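Please complete every field before forwarding. Incomplete forms are returned to the sender.

SECTION A: IDENTIFIERS
Entry label: holo-337
Bound molecule: pyridoxal-5'-phosphate
Molecule representation: SMILES string

SECTION B: INPUTS
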Amino acid sequence: MIDHLQTIEDRPVWQPAPQAVRARFDRPLPRKSRDLANVLSDFRSHIKPYVTGNTHPLFMGWVHGAGTPVGMLAEMLASGLNANCGGRNHIGIDVERQMTRWFAEAFGFPRDASGVFVTGTSMANFMGLLIARNEALGQSVRADGLRAAAAQLTAYTSSQAHGCIAQALELSGIGSRNLRLVPVDAAGAMRHDRLAAAIADDRRQGYLPFLIVGTAGTVNTGAMDDLHAIADIAEEQKVWFHVDGAFGALVVRSSCSPNACARWLPASSAPSRLPSTCTSGRMFPMTPAFSWFATQRRIGARSPTGPPICKERLVGSVRARCGPATWGRTCHGDFAR
Ligand SMILES: Cc1ncc(COP(=O)(O)O)c(C=O)c1O
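SECTION C: PREDICTED COMPLEX
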């Protein structure tokens, strides 16, 4: 793989797998063992040439994250140890706890905030939703289920939020019909006047608003919601506030010029007011795909002054252009759906 990365620029960004290669992956379950060298040779000939292309410097087909050689090393070490951090007495747990504290510090959360690595931002957002559900209905909902709730829960996010938010409502059993998609302004940010109106309307009709999901860097355009304004509404309405920071949460640690960041300063200082947030390793830091983090703290808990703040306008920088026309899928889809 090191050789592959060193010479990657000499090869095309992407090429289609020939039918004969695809057919190799449609064979019956093998009944005989093969030696490892043989399997590796298959990898070299039939897999490596036909991947997405996201590690190529000219790849511009959406936001896959490229990965890095340091990430490769980390993966090898982690697989070598194959640590199970679900319990027992070993150092892996200290490493994870340290990372949790570092993330908490980076986002201005209190030192005792909890956090965990999960498989992706979809899962991190799902966890944020479950925490909000428990907060609204009490821990008994875990045993009693949603039918014991006195009123129907409703959640709020912008019409530009990633599709995984609706999916989280579906997975939780609350139902995506109970997710209100709040309209956005010309910059793609959630309109907080419409948010407040939607919550008030639902309360009048007997619903139980329990969660607002803000977005720091939308998947379609990189738009940043006004997190401070939303936090005000969440506090006032006593509704859990979670931020999907897949792209944007890490700009909180960016150090670009104060002029460039001024516009985003209010939004980026908001993590210190968040009950929960999540961010992605594969987008800014380019860690191997699907290493992510979610963290939360309870409503009402206050942190000291937040960390150094945001700095960068995201719009445009994350909107990747389409790769070769033959790339095999439309690159102009709406990823919020
Ligand atoms: C803003 C946002 N949220 C959530 C996700 C979902 O992340 P994952 O694919 O890791 O589940 C993405 C993916 O691009 C995203 O851009």
